[in-house]
Amino acid sequence: MQTFSIAIHGGAGTLVKGMMTPDKEKDYKKALNNSLTKGYKILESGGTAIDAVEIAVRSLEDSHLFNAGKGSVFTADESHEMDASIMDGKTLNAGAVSLITGIRNPITLAKDVMEKSEHVFLAGDGAMQFAKQLNYSLEDETYFYDELRHQQWLEIKDTDNFQLDHSLKKDSKFGTVGAVACDKNGNIAAATSTGGMTNKKFGRVGDSPMIGAGNYANNKTCAVSCTGSGEFFIRGVVAYDVSCLMEYKDMNLEDAANEVINKRILEIGGDGGLIAVDKQGNISMPFNTEGMYRACKSSADKEEVSIYK
Q1: How far apart are CA 182 and CA 158, in angstroms?
Q2: N or C: where does the chain have the smaller number of CB atoms within 10 Å of the terminal CB?
């Protein structure tokens, strides 16, 4: 019988353990579990991997705890710019959006790009025009306001510093959300969403909306969602690299994912993690940082919700 499974992440390079209070840890785990349950229910009832990853990521976007959707960080001009992408392993269809504002669930807009346009990637004003055409309602800035995020921004505003999320160090770490799933038909899918970097300028885009870099799915190999130092994940074409190792070097999911995260990305100076599934429903969740907000569940009795190693 086909194993069906889902894995989600809420970012790598988590809060240093000493800074994570028991209450905060409980909140994060509850939000992860909530997302996992919603995605798994879709798979359990015979739904598609694509629908499962969208629902799971929407749940994380709706939480202020993660840097995506509601919890997105502030840019240099005190606004929010969000990115997202989604890919169907069965058809290799994909949709992505970048530099969008006011959209409650960027992952759903990415899915609409995939299903309702002739394109893969829409950005900025064009992506917003597309959303308008589909009658998306826009949230005002107060919806995206989070006190912790605002404090992070105030500390470095008017400087050339930028901050990747969830860390003591001003120049490192990241908070992206993502999901990968394998459904009862053995089809797989991946979805990734992010609010980017605190204090980012110049319309910077990371790996999350880039097919092949931060997100990829192919039934022949695997579905992957990444979280990490985006510039390095783009240079390493990380999500596709895992797939390539499986397709051309005949590696299994676990070995390919570990090779990329614990060797190849480190060699070029990047850090972070990823979640991946293959069409047999196997799951891999490697990371090379202090931690990664992550959770997974499979019909083969595997279940986990974790933050640290």
Answers
A1: 45
A2: N
